Every structure is written in structure tokens, then in C-alpha cells.
Target: Glutaminase
Amino acid sequence: MNYTAILQEIYQQIKRLPVTGTVTETIPELATIDPNKFGMHLTTLNGDDFGIGNSDEKFSIQSISKTLTVAMAFSLLGERMWERVGVEPSGNPFNSLVQLEYEKGMPRNPFINAGAIVVADMLVSQLKDPKKEFLDFVRMLSGSPQIDFNRSVAESEKQTGFRNVALANFIKSFGNIENDVDTVLDFYFFQCSIEMSCKELAHAFFFFANGGITKSGRQVLTQSQAKRLNALMQMCGFYDESGEFTYKVGLPGKSGIGGGIAALYPKNFTVTTWSPRLNEKGNSELGMNALELLTTKTGMSIF
Amino acid sequence: MNYTAILQEIYQQIKRLPVTGTVTETIPELATIDPNKFGMHLTTLNGDDFGIGNSDEKFSIQSISKTLTVAMAFSLLGERMWERVGVEPSGNPFNSLVQLEYEKGMPRNPFINAGAIVVADMLVSQLKDPKKEFLDFVRMLSGSPQIDFNRSVAESEKQTGFRNVALANFIKSFGNIENDVDTVLDFYFFQCSIEMSCKELAHAFFFFANGGITKSGRQVLTQSQAKRLNALMQMCGFYDESGEFTYKVGLPGKSGIGGGIAALYPKNFTVTTWSPRLNEKGNSELGMNALELLTTKTGMSIF
Amino acid sequence: MNYTAILQEIYQQIKRLPVTGTVTETIPELATIDPNKFGMHLTTLNGDDFGIGNSDEKFSIQSISKTLTVAMAFSLLGERMWERVGVEPSGNPFNSLVQLEYEKGMPRNPFINAGAIVVADMLVSQLKDPKKEFLDFVRMLSGSPQIDFNRSVAESEKQTGFRNVALANFIKSFGNIENDVDTVLDFYFFQCSIEMSCKELAHAFFFFANGGITKSGRQVLTQSQAKRLNALMQMCGFYDESGEFTYKVGLPGKSGIGGGIAALYPKNFTVTTWSPRLNEKGNSELGMNALELLTTKTGMSIF
Amino acid sequence: MNYTAILQEIYQQIKRLPVTGTVTETIPELATIDPNKFGMHLTTLNGDDFGIGNSDEKFSIQSISKTLTVAMAFSLLGERMWERVGVEPSGNPFNSLVQLEYEKGMPRNPFINAGAIVVADMLVSQLKDPKKEFLDFVRMLSGSPQIDFNRSVAESEKQTGFRNVALANFIKSFGNIENDVDTVLDFYFFQCSIEMSCKELAHAFFFFANGGITKSGRQVLTQSQAKRLNALMQMCGFYDESGEFTYKVGLPGKSGIGGGIAALYPKNFTVTTWSPRLNEKGNSELGMNALELLTTKTGMSIF
Model:
């Protein structure tokens, strides 16, 4: 498969598309990003790299970090973790409290905010120095020791994240948060503010496509665990647009409101995109288009 | 892959499992079925057949019929059909009216009852003799001209299906049913009462795994359309246990309250099970176990 | 209190108000009514009558009939009736199915459609000839033997009442309807299609204000029962605008989409209005204004 | 009316009732109260006082304080206050977030927690020294300058009030809280921790029954405003048991989880009860019984 040519084609087509989405305004610090940035990177399991556009530029991974905290928690806790968070799609917007109320503080899945906050609480309980150890984990996954978080973005989220404070306290009222709400949210805003390039992210996702083994050869999850998280991404990675993404793209993946998407074709490749314009559902508009073009052109979909 | 041996092993393990589920009581006519029946059938894309237990015995396919009406409607209407029914998981039990109210009569997906009733309405509008033409379609798909529906099961559903009557009238009140509610439900109860064996069902599902081309070589959907319905089955085939099934089994599939499950591994095989004992969510308990064993033993999962 | 002058004043003020509401389109037969009709009638407990405008013209009482079926059911069944229908406000629009689903087929109160259908089912079970006996009851209450129902309105509701068919079947699916759904709805559409004038309705409501004793001196409810139904009207008589009505008018009452309102000041008077223009919530716009003016001018509110 | 004898009778009957309710465990500091306390006090509009049992003992007024903050906000803001909080019953438990989500951060009424927090925010915005000025207002209403709040109860609420923190942040995320969430909640927990005796509370409620004029003759609300708040108490004073209370007792009132109830018969009397055992809905079990006995014995109900 000539990925260089394919990515080139996609890039040309993407640039000609009319743009309608807008950059997130939820987090003031992110609102100032150039909306016209576009990067894409594909890494095959034999280690070949294909990048285009702004694929080496760092962006805020935001909710994509949820896949990495889940992986770390899964490696530490195993199946036990599912006693506190479900594996079903939510059918509701990502920060809905309604479902949480009907289901007594047990979030539907770890990729909605409520679930990710519970996973953050698990890591805070399990790790001695949660921020440092998680950052080390992400650096190890991607093989990039210079990956870091963005303090002003984390601060910006803290200043405006009333909905997340509400979620965390609501879950705490049901007894499904063990630590101080402030500590848990501090970690949660930290993980969301981590910055990576498309290339770094494609490398970090390598182990999902590779049966749990990282690009550098380290087994962080069992093959079965990796498959399970891929299944979970497929079902729940795009909030209430997960069905649309599955229907059109047919690959497991996860989006973030920083405009990033990371996806993978098990046993074949990982692929990431970055374009800050979001559609109504909060997913990157051009990123979704680019990935749909990729599976159409290559015929590579899991279905 | 030695499927004969694998199915034999699964059968032995399944027989030793403690049974807790119960046969459906929703439809009186189905409540009298021997709960200990168990059949399983696998058909590879080169046409090899592997069956075990009661795999040649007919059972009521019930909601599995939804995949076949959707395929027929998709072949007739193309993408237009998604203007009246969505492609997102519902996150709610299969016959919930709540979501339908919030979303103004547009069902979340065609595999919950509300969505299947809308699809039934599409077929009633499109076909001259809907029952005959749909039955012919099913017979053609599976290559078994003697497949038929069960009149007393259809009657039994009509007598007790108050929830479905409620759903249909509710959707009609939003204008998303074109024909008489009675006519639409008559067709819907008919499709649910069709009886097939595991083998016939595995053959009927062949085209989903084979890029839209039936076992006898007829193209009923484009490759892209077949992939899209597989994606939809993955997301929504098991009601609010779809995530659980995806997480544990990792294959697109659809269950019915008659105890049947039909699933597929794209480009490889179709597989069906039948065991009437249902778990709390209304899915076949042993069928789900058998399929989990299959993907564990063969390593064949899409993720 | 000089009610003649007060009604005259109200009438003058009402005529000068800008009109924004629209006649119901839910029931085609009612959509043709002259939107500018306005009638008002007040009957004191000493039997004095004060009418103005089109107060002697018949209109479709619609949901106001719910108060009379509840009174009849209460007189027949006593407190037992509350085992099948609640006494709490619903906080939702009058034909919502959501609450019914969460509360397993037990309607919140007898003044939302779901509750009124359950009450209709009670009367169908209790009475030999439900329509005739209920009509006799209404004639007796108001002292007007020529009160009748409107066959074409009843038919019109039957043709378009998909939401009510949905509600009734939904409740039946929970086991809270005893009779055939068709029979119950036939009675329900009948009761809604009864036609009365403001004057007849004010007379029919007399017993609510008079401790359960009709204008002609017959005790149909105990004093305690009458008080309880007044309390219920106060809480639930105006759908999800009940609070607004209580807050502004401060009298127990009930509205109908035919544009009628019947209200009462216990131990003092009953008062009815008719104006077909409805506000967004489905209550008569000018009727609510007229009643607010009445309590402001007379200072007669229960609070 | 011989209130001395009536209260005596009620007291005797209440003491013989089997007790099933339990003291609140939501607020640890309140969980230690003697469950067998019972007090009742009635104050007529001519100023006569009738007390029985522990009617002079202080208890935590909790949610009853919501009526007094609403009165103060209404006196300061007038009708403008209803732009930020509704006047409709909620039909849901007192601390539900579901409705708030569907209605975009505008609480249904000021007597559910969400609404009371918005009212607290109004007072924090309007007053220079909110705690002191509100306490002065309460002391003035009841004529008891020694009324105070309980610091350890306020602290106890702060430690465990995760649901209220969730509510406040959730409302803030919709923009309907102006001040810092911590400041608003600090005031809210303060108001809930105020302690009063049945007698003091009956005196404080005097102005509701007296057209807005306090026992000492000061006009704090207009007659129309007082009537409106009475109507609001009638509709919403007892959470999702408001209908039950209205149906059985037929007086406007408000309960608190400290076991208190304050109610009134407009133009006649105010009446308060205290008994810490709560029923399932969070209302004082014996208090509700006592008030039902009172209206049955005296025939004094507004309906």
C-alpha cells in the first residue's frame, strides 16, 4: 500500500473542502489556536512512518488522554476496574448527568467525562506520584521523553470546568470517587492538557494495534486486554457520534476537543489527525473526513 | 482452522455450564420451547459448513429478522433510509419510549423495536406484496425455499404486543410512519415469526461477511453497504448489552428473544447459535458464552 | 360583591388585549372554531348566575371532562382508586410517556391523559353502560338534560389520537388497564367530546365548591372527597403550567384544549371561561387572563 | 375554636402511632438527635399562642429556611427573580439534576435545592453582609433576637454535601450563578443550619398568613406577593410528596430534613411541628400526621 501517495491525495482533497466547524470555546486557552492547522500521521506495525501537513506540531490531546489512562488503569487493576465503570455506549452527550443519576453514579464507559474522572480517581489511588508516573507512561508509550503537559491549559480548564466539578461531586455523592474531588480533578485537568504531535500520538497508540506491545517492544497489556480496549473505543470513542464514526470509518478511535483523533487498524497501523475545527458533536470535522477517505481509498476497515 | 474440533470443544464446555437464564415469557407461544435446546453452526466463505447440537432445528428468529429487513430496505432506498432512522446506539432497553420522545419520533437505530417498526413501514411502502416479497428475499439469501413464518407465533405477538402497538402509534404521532399502524405491525409480527435453523441463518448471513454477495453469488448490497450494516450490528445488535458483547466477543451480530444469535467475521465466516435461555438483558445466555469461546479459541475477532 | 360589574369590566379589558394564541390543531374538527369567541360565567353558592359574552354557547369540554370522570370514579371506588393513579403533579407535558416508563405504568395523576385513560378504564369496569351512565351523571350535575356529546369530534379524535393510543397500549403493557384498549379509548374520546356552555359547566362544578353537594342538593361526594379533588385540581389542573396558574390565579381549576376553563372558590362560587385561543402550554390564553383579573379585582383567592 | 384542646388531642393520638421513619443520615451532625422529640405550635392572627410537647426546643430548620430566603429575595428583587427560577412543581426528588439538564440550568422552583442555591446566589449579590443581614431578617420576622445558626451543622453539611456542590457547579456551567460557587454554598449551608423552636418558627411565618405583615406589624411583602409565595409553597413545599400533602392536609407549607414543618392557613393561623423521624420522601412522618389531624378536626383547609 503506497501510504505516501494516499496521504498526499487525502491532504489535497481535505484542503478543498468547505470549512464550517469552529474551534472549541469551552477552554479559553485553546480558543486561540489557528483553525486552519491540519496534520495526519500513519504508522504501520513494521514501523514505517508517513506524515503530512502539521503532523509534527504539538496540540492538546484532551480526551484522547482517556484511552491512555484507561490502558494504565487496566494494566494495574485488570478486570476489577469494570466494577466502577461500564463498557456500554452512553447514547448521550459526553458530559450528561442524567444517565449518571439513573444509574447511581456508575458511569456508562470510561470515555465519557464521568467515566474518565472515575478512572483518574483509580490512578490517584494506585500511584504514588500520579502525574509524574502517568506522564512517564505516555513518554514510554510514544518513545518521546520530551512530551509534557501545558500548565496554562490545565489552569484554563480548572477555571471554567464547572460541569466537570459537578460530575465529580455527583459521583462522589454516590460513593464512586475515593479521593478528594480537588485532587482527582487536578489530575484529570493535567492529563487533558498533555501536548503531543500527530506522530507522537500515532506511536503512543502502537500497542493498541499490536496486541498490547509498544513500538519499543514492551508488553503493557495482554493481547486480550488490548482487543477489549479497541472494542471499547469502537463503541464509545466519539461520544454520541460513535455510531456515525463506526458506520462511516469503521475503525476504533478516540477524539479530543483539541481537534485530534487517534485511530487504529488492528494488526496493521495506527493513524492520527489534527484539525481544530469541531463539528456540532465536538469531534474534528476534517479529521473525520480524512479518516473516512483513508478507509475508502485503502478498503481497510474492520468490517 | 479445525472448526469441527473447535465446535465440539465449545459444545462440551457449554453443556457443563450452570444454567440460570429463562425462556422468554413475552410471547406465550414461545414460552413452551424446551429450554435445553442448543445448536451452533459456522459457515466459512469458501462454503464449508460446520454444525453441532440442534443446529438443523427451526426456531423463531424474532429480532434477528431486523438485520434482513434493514438489508432489504437499504438495497431499495440506499442512504435515504437514514433520514428516518439513526445509526447510533440507544443506551436504553430495546423497547424504550423515553428516547423516542426526546428525539421526536426518530428511532436511534434500526435494531431497537422502534427502528425496526419504521423499517417495516418502509418495506410496506416499497413492496407490492410485502410479506411474500420479504419471505422470498429471506429464502433467496439462505437458499432454502421452504423457510416460512409461524402463524400462531405471529398471532401470539399480536395478542400481547401492547408495547409495540404503543411504539408504533407514538412514532405515527410524530409523523414517522406512513402506513396504517395495523398494517405495519402485521408485517412486523410476521417478520419476527419467521422460523429458520442455525444452518439456514448462517447461510442467510453469508452476504454480510462476503461484501454484499450471497452464498449463491448474487449481489444484494454493495461492499460498502454491507460493511456499514456490519458496523451497525456491532454498535447496536445486542440492545443495551451491545458494549458487553463487543467487549467480550468482538464480532458484529444480532440476537433474538427466540434464543438465536447470528454473527459474522467479515471476509471469513458467519456463525449462529440457538439456546432459548435468555439473560436479564434478553440475549441468549449460552449463545453469548459459545461465541466468546469461539473468538477466544480461534483468536478471530475484528479487534 | 357586584359580580355583574366585575364581569363587565373583565370583558372590556379582555377585548382590548392583543391576541397571540392559536386554536388547537390537534383535533381537526375543533380547528374550525371561531377564535374570537369569549364567554364567562360565575355561579355563587346561593345560586346566583352571572354570565357575559358567549357564555351560553356550547363548546367541547375536552380535558375538563377528566374532573367529572374522576369525581364519578371516586364516588364509586373511594380511596381504592389511588392504587392505580397518583396524586402528584407530573412536571411534564400532558401526554408524556417518559414518566410513565420510569414509574411502570402508574400515571402521576388523573388529569394528565395517561391518568384519565386509567380512570376511563375504571368506569368501563364499574358501569354497565358507561357512556350513557356518565352522560346521565354530567346531566344530573349540571341540571341540563340536553347536554350531549359530539359524534364527529369523537370520531376526529379517534382518527388522529395516535399519542393516546400509544399511551393506552403502553399502560396496558404494564397491566394497569383492565379492559380492551379500544373500548377504553372509545369511552375516553366520548367523554372529551361532550359539549357544554359556560353556564352548564359552572353549574356542573357547583358540587366541588359546595362540599360535594350538587346545585340540586344531591350529595355525590363527601365533603372530604370534594376537598381532596379540589386540592388535586390545584396541583395538576393545568399540566406543566399548574404552578403558573396557582401562582397567578390561586384557585383550583381545570382547562381543556377546546378553550374552556372551569375553576372554583370553595364555599363561594364556581367560574368558567371559554376562549379557543391556546397558549404554548395548551391552556386558554384569555381564559387565564380573565381569571387572574377576577381574583385581582375581588381579592378572592384561596391563599 | 379551642386550639388548646385540639392540640392536646392530636398530641395524644400522635404518641400512640407506630413509628417507622428514621432520622436523617445525610448530615452526620443531625443524625444524633433524639428521634422521639415532638413539638407543635399554633399562632393565630390575633396573636394567641398554643404549644405542646417540645415546642420551645430549638431544631435545625434546614429547608424551611428556603421560604425565608425566597421572601427576602422577593422583597428585594420583585418579579425579576422569576427570570432565574421557575414556579412549577418539579415532579422529581429534591436534589435531582436530570430536570436541570433538560431545562438548561433554570431550576423548576425555589424550594428544590437547585432553586434555593440560585436564590442564595441572588442574596449574596444583593446584600453587603449576606449572613448577618439574613439572620437579622429572620430575627426580625420572629421577634426573637437570640436566633442563631449552628456552626458545626453548617460544617457537617459542607463536608458531606457533594450533591449540592454538584448542583451549584452544574448551574454555574449554564451561567445561572453569578458569584463564586464556594461563597454561595457557604451561605446556603449557613441558612440551612439556623436553629429555631416551633414557636419561633410559627411567629416567623406569621407574615405569610397575614398578607405580608409581620407579627410586629412590619410590611415585608405586599399582600399579592405573600399570596404568591403561599401558592408556591402549596405546589412545591414537600418535594415529590407535595401532591400528597396538599391532598391530605390542604394547607401551604414547607418541610425540612431536620424534622420540622411550617404551614399556614391564610388569614387565620400559622402552625409548626417538629419530629425528627422522616418518611421515605424526606418529610417528617409525625408532623404530616399531626397536620392532617389538625385540618380534619378543625375543618380548616383552603379547599
Q: What stands out?
A: Chain D has one domain: 3-298.
